Amino acid sequence: MSDILYLTSMEPRSGKSAVALGLLDLLAADVQRLAVFRPVVPDHGQPDPIVELARGRYQLELPEADAVAFTYSSAAELIESGGPERLIAAVVDHVARLRERYDFVLCVGTDYTGPSPAVELGLNAELAANLGAPVLQVLSGHGRTADAVTTALREGGAVLREHGCEVVATIVNRAGPEHAGLTSADPPVYVVPDLPILAALTVGEVVAALDGTLLAGDGPALQREVDSYLAGSAYLQTVLPLLRDGMLLVSSGDRIDLAVGVAAAAVSPHLPTPAGIVLTVGHVPDQQSLALLEPSGLPVIAVKADTYTTLHQLEGLTGQLRADSARKVAAALGAFADNVDTETLRKRIQLSKPDVVTPLMFSAQLIAHARADKRTIVLPEGDEERILLATEELTHRGVADLVLLGDPDAIAAKATQLGTDLSGVRIIDPLTSPLRAQFAKTYAELRAHRGVTPEMAFDIIGDVSYFGTMLVHAGEVDGMVSGAAHTTAHTIRPALEVIRTLPGVSLVSSAFLMCLPTRVLVFADCAVVPDPDATQLADIAVCASETAVAFGVEPRVAMVSYSTGGSGSGVDVEKVREATEIVAGRRPDLPLAGPIQYDAAVDPGVGAAKLPGNPVAGHATVLVFPDLNTGNTTYKAVQRAASAIAVGPVLQGLRRPVNDLSRGCTVADIVNTVAITAVQAQQSTAVQAQGAR
């Protein structure tokens, strides 16, 4: 297995950060301890953006001093005192120390912004050769003809080969349609399209660039990209027709009439939504005026410079790819995954499958699994802010095709206000959809035994949870995720009434995927069934083992009790013992132990002492608890004590997947839950296909 890769561009502004992000995402699925290294960085005195992106997004425990060797000036001093060989030796020594502590080092070459950019490709090639690192080169297609790119590829490749470098692949980044034919197989050349969003300034970056004071608006609004600028130097009736979505108004601070008018446009569903307002000449509106601006949610920024100077400061600035730029990160990762054959690249880098699985690796593998066989998931809470932000990220990254439920105008207005892109997302209003009558008829037939009439059914199906569930039942979508704004009962009850359980499964239960520092365990049931009997407990165990398989966890099932083996007795222990016998009869292929205490299930030393020779003892991956009280308490205790990440609850036992969110969920939680639901849908299809045969 290779433990190093050198990423080098061939010129400035190639979009190297976006490629580095795509590589980090690929590496994160396979590498436990990952480091990012920059041999030489600019002398601006700020943390390196690529290092900060890696540390922020992938929680790398990587001090700045370890991640960066030299600035351009300190590198020049070293070369002046001892020649290039001294610089190369120092970099090689620095990386050698990193390789002792990390499983993989991604070296990201220079930015071509130093005093001698013409010699930097040779320097990067020399560094890669001396590090023994295979090279992935990046070339910009922006503003170049296909012939010019071909020439640059040939010349760059020649320089690398002259230095003895192995080129694993080339990425033509920031490409246009004219570059589509440049792809090749050996060594691979991948063409990634230009994404203007990556170079756009966010409102937050505008605040920093202008050294401004934020008077109003924060949170997601600061992450909105600025598409264009508008100088506010005319009457409001002249300015409003010029307004566009994503436009930043730059106006004298005493023109509060323009600021209030633009803020009013932001809350109107019929007018464009600007990105924010910059008030110049150091004039700060009074509290009454600010009170008029705040309801729009627009960021309002005060600066000391005049309007002309402010616009001149913004001219030519480009945004950076940062860990908190969710929209940019999603767009970059989606473009990389769509246009780079990551499996081929993984093989060429010579990555091997790891023995351990960290939470970060699990999340990356989960997203990759969902992308590999894309499914359609319905999100009933279409006007919820977190749902819209997650929808954009999921769509950009190609995790799933999504359907939102709700009033299309209200959803579009909220999306515009947030600056989110819902292109390609289907929106259905349950109250006006032609499907409502069809679904009501089906629901009335399914629930006639409960006295549900067609008229009652028509009213019930107008509810987003019921309509979404009927979309799943009818096969219009593959799964549903809800609960960001609804109770668990509101999410699950329709599924229990309509979708029902798999053949041979008596009940719906839940499982948590517990991501510990070096492995993933499955805990069940921790959220749904209060006190299962032995047969139900066996159902939970079998379903939990299948959940484990779906998410790449080899199932070794421990039926947890306060007693191990035959050492104890009592009603509760007998229930677990009986359930274990039922599971053994139904699934003789499953590695199984029970009754077994928690410590004997997960600690090899204790397991060997209490159940010697049992393959599950000390090595369990699926832990089935005797009741909800035990399961819920244990998962929360482990979550806190072991700093584990609990993903779920994942509902299991349904014919088609429906999953519940916590009302306190984050955007990342929603993304993971949609990916989980998509993977469950893949599994559900496979099970149904097997049954059909």
Automatic annotation (TrEMBL):
Which keywords does the record carry?
Acyltransferase, Cytoplasm, Transferase
Q: What class of enzyme is it?
A: transferase
- Cross-referenced InterPro entries: DRTGG, P-Actrans_bac, P-loop_NTPase, P_AcTrfase, P_AcTrfase_dom1, P_AcTrfase_dom2, Phos_Acetyltrans/Butyryltrans, PTA_PTB
Metabolic or biological pathway: Metabolic intermediate biosynthesis; acetyl-CoA biosynthesis; acetyl-CoA from acetate: step 2/2
Q: Which SUPFAM superfamilies match?
A: HprK N-terminal domain-like, Isocitrate/Isopropylmalate dehydrogenase-like, P-loop containing nucleoside triphosphate hydrolases
Q: Which reaction does it catalyse?
A: acetyl-CoA + phosphate = acetyl phosphate + CoA
The answer to whether keyword Chaperone applies is: no
- Protein name per UniProt: Phosphate acetyltransferase
Name of the coding gene? pta
